[in-house]
């Protein structure tokens, strides 16, 4: 019985480890009222990361950044995934092209 418990615990650790590592490189941005939240997103430098952009507004928005080399239209009440990096340490601005006056933010790689 003790071996069965140890085997079950080990199996649970092996399954959970890749999920934990994957989650560390995934981030979420939300668009609401034509603003990004959080407006500053800290990501690890020198690593490729995934950002899920959730558009909670009923109208489309475009997640765009020349420095991040990304341009993605997200329909209203929908989400999209973008992959960026690896980035050198620094600040990388982004904006929503359809509401550029309010939809602004920065990715901080550190």
TrEMBL record:
InterPro entries: Cupredoxin (IPR008972), EfeO_Cupredoxin (IPR028096). Pfam families: Cupredoxin_1 (PF13473). Keywords: Signal. Residues 9-109 form the EfeO-type cupredoxin-like domain. Residues 1-23 form the signal peptide. It comes from the Bacteria. This is Cupredoxin domain-containing protein. It comes from Undibacter mobilis.
